[in-house]
Specification:
InterPro entries: RpnA. It comes from Streptococcus suis. This is Glycyl-tRNA synthetase subunit alpha. The chain has 302 residues and is an alpha/beta fold. The protein contains 11 helices and 8 strands. It folds into 2 domains: 206 residues, no CATH class; 80 residues, no CATH class. Strands 1-2-3-4-8-5 form a 6-stranded mixed sheet, sandwiched between helices. The chain has a two-stranded antiparallel ribbon with strand order 6-7. A hairpin with a 4-residue loop joins strand 6 and strand 7. The chain is globular and about 65 Å long.
């Protein structure tokens, strides 16, 4: 099924940070995609206040949330709603930056510099991407450090009990492939939720809780204003994109301009579908009918 559940996508920056600011939801998300269940989690940058500091009249296609677990492990949740050629390299760089950034804090806790390496904690990244990055049918790709010839996964002792764990893992989830791949029940529910699609099976209590956070009636007045501002920024962003197509046809013939305008509207609608916008908003901004938008969605499977 291709029907969207909500007018605002869970991938929208304000909504995403509202969702992952809930500790129970974030713990379940980490358990689902990293395979271990934290006892507790601290959100270091994922609140509405953070969003207010980061942007006011700016439309961004990237969201990042940093969480620290009870043992010091850092988990980065990265959301990318538009395709970027260097996204995976940026995610890798971002992970390394957070590891290095944490070293001064570790150094303060030890007397000898060489002792601080025993205090370093793992760092993991989970990227939610609306575009396709890998040429296969698998929605989830997990990257770890392995031995070149034998393929043994590198594990090191961490924490007070020196538990063997992977020092690094990068998981990339392609929401566009929500219909495909062999997925566990929780994985499929999470992917369908984040892709803003109809659920294919009954949902867990955690997914129901996350779904309820998308209900506008549960938002504060401040949150409503921030979401509305985000939608206005999105409208301006895509309106400027559409205008560029119109300007590009001004030197052509009248029929060329009309053809270019129609192609421009379709391209804008396609980009908005990829980024999780509702049919209603796409209709309003492009002038295309709901049938045209639905056909476009089915054609490109977005």
């Amino acid at each position: 099924m291709t029907k969207r559940r909500q007018a605002v996508s869970p991938m929208a920056d304000i909504i995403a940070k509202k969702i992952f600011n809930d500790h129970e939801i974030t713990i379940d998300f980490i358990d689902t995609f990293l395979g271990f269940r934290p006892k507790s989690v601290q959100i270091l940058n994922g609140t509405i206040a953070d969003v207010k500091k980061e942007r006011t009249r700016h439309f961004s296609t990237t969201v990042d949330i940093l969480a620290r677990l009870e043992d010091g492990t850092q988990v980065i949740i990265e959301i990318q709603v538009a395709y970027q050629n260097g996204f995976i390299k940026r995610l890798w760089t971002y992970s390394c930056q957070h590891l290095v950034k944490d070293l001064p804090n570790i150094r303060e806790k030890v007397t000898q510099t060489h002792d601080m390496y025993d205090k370093i904690s793992p760092i993991y990244s989970i990227a939610l991407v609306a575009s396709k990055y890998f040429d296969d049918e698998e929605p989830i790709h997990s990257f770890v450090l392995t031995e070149k010839d034998g393929g043994q996964v590198l594990e090191l002792p961490f924490g007070e009990h020196e538990e063997l764990r992977k020092p690094f893992e990068m998981v990339i989830i392609e929401l566009k492939k929500f219909r495909k791949g062999q997925l566990e029940k929780n994985q499929r529910q999470w992917i369908e939720f984040l892709a803003n699609r109809e659920f294919s099976q009954s949902t867990s209590d955690i997914i129901e809780k996350a779904e309820n956070l998308l209900n506008r009636n549960t938002w504060t007045e401040e949150e409503i204003e921030m979401v509305d501002q985000w939608l206005r920024n999105a409208s301006n962003h895509f309106g400027e994109l559409e205008s560029s197509y119109i300007r590009g046809r001004r030197l052509g013939k009248e029929e060329g301009r009309a053809e270019g305008l129609e192609k421009g509207r379709i391209e804008v609608a396609y980009q908005m579908l990829r980024e999780g916008f509702s049919y209603e908003l796409i209709e309003k901004l492009t002038g295309l009918s709901s049938d045209q938008i639905n056909q476009l969605s089915q054609k490109h499977q977005v």
